[in-house]
Amino acid sequence: MFDNSYHQTLDQIHYLYSIPYKYYQDYGIRKYGAYGISVFYVAQRTAKILKKNPNLVNLIVCHLGSGASVTAVKCGKSYDTSMGISPLTGVTMGTRSGDFDPAALQRLMHKYR
């Protein structure tokens, strides 16, 4: 299983960025998510513990460690996720900054050139 394949059930409203649609069409710029294997396991295991049909489970799964993500699971499928085109975005992690405003990077570039 490819790690982000679990997130292929995201709706366009959740995986498209607020940028020109052409970037998605031409270059595949969209959210792909990460840690799907872990999220899938947690959703399946939680359903078993709760004695519920895995296709009816709604959860918020927090994958926390040096890498971290938050995924909304609706009816057993990925509904939304904090990670984007790569595992660099989303919540702050032990080894990655998470979301970072590009304007802050631009300011740093001007200050430290």
In short:
The protein has 113 residues and is of the alpha+beta class. It is built from 4 helices and 3 strands; from the N terminus they run αααβββα.
Question: How does this model look, in words?
Answer:
The protein has 113 residues and is α+β, with helices and mostly antiparallel strands. 32% of the residues lie in helices and 14% in strands. It has helices at residues 12-15, 21-27, 36-50, 102-111, and strands spanning 59-63, 69-74, 77-81. Strand 1 (59-63) and strand 2 form a beta hairpin.
List keywords for this structure.
4 helices; 14% strand; 3 strands; alpha+beta; Nucleotidyltransferase, domain 5; 113 residues; single chain; 3-stranded antiparallel sheet
Q: Rg from C-alpha positions?
A: 16 Å
Q: What gap, in angstroms, lies between the N and C termini?
A: 44 Å
**Quaternary organisation:** single chain
Structural class label: alpha+beta
> What is the CATH topology descriptor?
Nucleotidyltransferase, domain 5
The stretches of 5 or more residues where confidence is low (pLDDT under 50) are none
Largest sheet: 3 strands, antiparallel
Output the CATH class name.
Alpha Beta
Mean pLDDT: 93
Please report the total strand number as a whole number: 3
Strand order of the largest sheet: 1-2-3
Helical amount among residues, as a percent range? 25-40%
Tally of contiguous helical segments = 4
Task: Tell me the strand percentage band.
Answer: 5-15%
Instruction: Give the overall form.
Output: globular
Number of domains: 1
CATH superfamily: ATPase, nucleotide binding domain
| Second rung of CATH, namely the architecture | 2-Layer Sandwich
In N-to-C order, the SSE pattern is HHHEEEH
